[in-house]
Hints:
By secondary structure, this protein is of the alpha+beta class. Helices cover about 15% and strands about 35% of the residues. The protein has helices spanning about 35-45, 60-65; strands spanning about 5-10, 10-15, 20, 30-35, 45-55, 75-80, 80-85, 95-100. Strands 5-4-8-6-7 form a five-stranded mixed sheet. The chain has a three-stranded antiparallel sheet with strand order 1-2-3, with no helix packed on it. The N and C termini lie far apart (about 80 Å).
Amino acid sequence: MESHVRITSLRAYNVHHSNPIPLPQFDTMTIQVRFFASLCERLGVSGLQLTIDAGATVADVWRQALGEVQAPANVLAAVNLEYVDFSAPVSDGDEVAFFPPVTGG
């Protein structure tokens, strides 16, 4: 007897049985993203909440938040108030901030 599967509301049920068949789980994370100073003005957004795949990096956060907008070469990034490279991993609940270089005098 051939078995068929019907997908309903993200649950699969075997047509011949009413037992749910587990579907693969795709882990996601929720990240708070902040843009500061001239970067905020240029992009027209100061912050947003982003749902992103587990295992993402700061660069992935930038890409998903802004799509085709290239990060300026001198943009700095921080995760939870610590400076990081764009290759740094992010975790669920992190705050990722992007800002132009800070100068002082």
